[in-house]
Amino acid sequence: MDPRIFQTTAIVLSNLSTLLAVLIFSWYRPHFTGSKPIKFLIIISLLSDSLNILFGLLLGQPKPSIGIVYRYAELTCLLWFYKDILNFRPGTKNSIIALLAIVAGVYWFDSNELISIRLTNNIVFILFSLVFFIKILKALEIERIDRHSLFWINNAVFVYFTGTFFLFLLRGYLINHHYEEYPYIWTVNNLLGIVKNFMFAYAFWLCKKG
Amino acid sequence: MNNSEPNFLLVFGLGTSIMLFMAGSIVFFIVFYQKRMLQNKMEKQKMEGEYQRKLLQATLESQEKERKRLASELHDSVGAMLSATKLNLNFLKSLGDDTETKQSLDETKGMIDETIDTVRRISKDLLPSSLEKFGLVEALKEFCDKISTPKTEVIFQNDDKQLSLKKEQELPLYRLVQEIVNNALKHADAKSVIISINQDPRFSLVITDNGKGFDVQATKKDINKGVGLYNIENRVNMLRGQVELTSVLGQGTTYKVVIPADA
Q1: Low-confidence winner among A6-20, A185-199, B173-187, B196-210 (lowest mean pLDDT)
Q2: Residue A45 Cα, gap to closest chain B Cα (Å)
Q3: What are B105-160's pLDDT values in tens digits?
């Protein structure tokens, strides 16, 4: 199969899963702590994936800048989400803003893959999702954790960012050394995106059910 | 590819697999560990609740024991002494011819009669003898008759079915009714209180008044006002029952107490 067609197919499937999450969110209109940033995240994700498909069809390949904009939106929305559910102290909030400023600066002035926005998202959100797990274990307030919306949203974030960690870490090397295989390697991101969206959809559905 | 360079594809594949495996393991660990910890916590809470219940039961039992002792002392000692004093006065009255002395003795006798009645009433309040002799239904009927006044009527209703209550449950239930009715008369200014008991198949007690009602949640939060409600809930918990309280401002209050058959 032509790698471009393969990549576009993966993006389309990923987009359909995002659409599913958006539809379930619109249908059930769940209200829980942190639901707003997740709503924005899936809408932005749907828009950026749709634009990527459009550019793929028109120009023959997706526009990388859309992905970068999406990563910044992802960073903002998820920071907002974790701010809501972890109740950051003012000091923590300031540290995050400082970190964001450094990441933004480094990215725009240095294209070194090791400290790109993607990898920063991975590290920050793996840590935050682990903090949330610890918080759940410490509080011991939720009777059925597997029926708790926030747990599934956190799972989605955790699984996606742990799964894509090596992909984003080695992105530059993989492009340079495995250029032919790279479109196929990149589908790991799309597959994990689908898993993430299904988990989001399940979390929204659970919220309505509960 | 240069042989001295690492195989990035292999590193990526292995790294991603390990990371996903670790993520999955962490999620499973969280689910099972949290479940186990929660079970432990609930068991501990249950044990603490049971301990509190037993402690309360012991306190109330000792309170009842003390009441019983006081009632018996009042009835047997003070009551008997007063009756003997009354007999002596009757004897003195028969000896004297003086009208003034006779009048004075009559007055003293009247005062002793009143004191005997008061002692009997206190003794009965401390331990309703009808409860031991005839059971809860008769004791409640007697209580309603006694507490009813021309201004406030306290009505007792029951379905005439055999009650499934154990003997040791009757006194706490009687005290519960006393507390609720006293609250209705004292705080709610109720003009009518209806007490009904049913056995269908669980024992249920419903007390409804037409008093001024109150905000249940606000009262529970108020440390000064909420003690009465807390006591009622504790008494019901001690009986392993459930209490449902509904109150509407200006319309009245209803307590529904259900005691399971195997409590």
Answers
A1: A6-20
A2: 22
A3: 888 888 988 988 888 888 877 878 788 888 888 899 988 988 888 888 999 998 77
Determine the structural domain holding residue B148 and report its residue range.
133-259
Residue B88 and residue B12 share a domain: yes
Strand partners, B248: B252
Q: What's the pLDDT score for residue B162? A: 75
Question: A120 with A171: CB under 8 angstroms?
Answer: no
**Quick check: A136 and B34 CB within 8 A?**
yes
The last residue of one of the domains, among B127, B153, B170, is B127
Before B201, cis peptide (omega within 30)? yes
Same domain, B163 and B87: no
Residues B139 and B123 in one domain: no
pLDDT at B103 over 90: no
For range B71-99, the mean pLDDT = 83
Find which of A166, A176, A179 to mutate to test the B interface (most B CBs within 10 Å of its CB).
Answer: A166
Integer CA distances (angstroms), A82 to A64, A101, A146, A148, B119, in order: 27, 18, 19, 16, 70
Q: Alpha carbon of B13 to those of A14, A123, A185: distances in Å?
A: 21, 19, 9
Are B24 and A159 inside 8 Å of each other by CB? yes
Number of domains into which chain B is organized: 2
For residue B5, the chain A residues in CB contact (below 8 A) are 177
ipTM of the complex: 0.85
- Considering the domain architecture, whether residues B122 and B139 belong to the same structural domain is answered as no
Contact A163 B19 (CB under 8 A): yes
B189 and B236 assigned to the same domain:
yes
Q: For an interface test with B, which of A162, A165, A175, A199 has the most B Cβ atoms less than 10 Å from its Cβ?
A: A162
Look at residues B138, B225, B145 and name the one whose alpha carbon lies nearest to residue B193: B145
Contact check, Cβ <8 Å, B27/A169: no
B18-50 per-position pLDDT tens digit: 999 999 999 999 999 988 888 898 899 899 988
List chain A domain ranges: 3-209
Which of A195-209, B133-147, B212-226, B248-262 has the least mean pLDDT? B212-226
Contacts of A202 (CB under 8 A, 6+ apart): A152
The last residue of one of the domains, among B63, B98, B127, is: B127
The distance of B50 to chain A (nearest Cα, Å) reads 21
